[in-house]
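Journal club prep — side note

Before the paper discussion, L.F. wants everyone to see what a predicted structure for a comparable chain looks like in token form. Sequence:
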Amino acid sequence: MVKLINKMLNNRLGFTRYCAAVVMVSSLSTGAMAADAPSFDCAKVNAGSIEAMVCKDAGLSQLDNQLAEVYSQALEKAKNEQPPTLKAMQRGWVKGRNECWKSEDKHACIEASYQTRIAELQAQYRLVDMTGPVFYACDGNPANEVVVTYFKTEPATLIAEHGDSTSLMFVQPSGSGAKYQGRNESLWEHQGEAKVVWGFEAPEMTCKLVTK
């Protein structure tokens, strides 16, 4: 009788351990799936859409989660922003990302869209380390000033101020110095001198670093 009871207890212990192992594996699998999932509900996306591509790609899903975190940080910084433009800008970005279906390399387009948006938010809302401001006097006129702040984003960015306008620029490949390009503005810095173009088809300015 004692042997029978011990056998039953051993069998029960073995079964319990087996169940615990199954639960652990299931939990790990669920956790891995959650880690690979983007910030939105993949069950609600349309087949063949850009969102569906993000859902199926672990790297793009990771970028989506990173953007969601950065966007949340930006929202906190922008809670007193007037006018409140961040949410509208984000909706515009989503529409722009979804235009990647027109691209020959959709994956590269989506990836670049996420990376630039993350960097843009980090720079605009000062969410990463920065250097500056750095002052440049242009064309020999101290009043013709460009003020630059550099941000440790990926890709690297800067925000330049000239007169009453500002420009967010992204780093570009360059054989020497550091070259940045914005919408209609550019800055190419080398050894304390910067070539600056401010506005569509505007003349290039030669700007010297000023110590203040």
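L.F.'s comment for the group: The mean pLDDT is 86. Keep this in mind when we get to the figures.
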